[in-house]
Amino acid sequence: MKRIFSVVLLLILMQQSYAQLLLKNKVLMFASFRDNGEDGLHLAWSKDGLNWTALKGDSSFLRPIVSKDKLMRDPCIIKGPDNLFHMVWTVSWKDQGIGYASSKDLVHWSTQQFIPVMQHEPTALNCWAPEIIYDEQHKNYMIYWSTTIPGRFAAGDTSGDEKYNHRLYYVTTKDFKKYTTAKLLYNQGFNVIDATIQKAGKKYILFLKDETLKPIPEKNIRMAISDDLNRGFGKPSAPITGHYWAEGPTAVKAGNKWMVYFDKYTEGNYGAVISTDLVNWKDISAMVHFPKGTRHGTVFSISINEFKQFFK
What we know:
mainly beta, four-stranded antiparallel β-sheet
């Protein structure tokens, strides 16, 4: 009994410390989807990064209208230097482009665009889980995602699910009207999806899903580091997640702690790990609570004033 009490007390103290750490005059937001992405964008918020509450009664803020499948999976939102929120998403399981829209308040959104990022590769099978980051050095936005081009890479061609052998690609844009031609972002000889990049000092951290299925399943979250945003990411780290299948990593740093959320998609719930040094990770999945049905989302923050204005 004494041991159980000690464990419970430790969990309470840990939760309080995380809450104090993550508030800092900010509200954490989480963009995600439900089911197959048919009804579009769902938003949730949190004061402590652990307990998440759905907004708008967990109904959609934006319904998808682009691409023949009209899905809105894996939404990623960032706030740009133009004070607009920019969102990209997966429009289909097998399209050669992605979706894009912008908003001033996360409630009212611009006309949706279809960006044909891989249509110059006629055999490309898909464009999955796009994310977006602002490149302060070059004053542009980088959009990156995973695609399978059959026969392009021999390594990993028989190790994935069905015919898929993904690599990461990217384009850049300054105005969301003109885009560069897609280039290879990450190839370390294995099947990789669900990338998210965070800046850490002068370096960039690429969190990714090792999509290897055969001969031994990986299906875990790893990370790679580079001095540059769109090149130089090396071999991945050991898995930072546990003995379960995980995908869709999304990361936030508060104080000296990094928290990485991920979709435990075979279990139907969300997990998280936390670290102070990007080397040693502690699984705190038991402490995080998301709205039922939350799928592959991304975390970002807004000010308390913005939260009050946007969601009166």
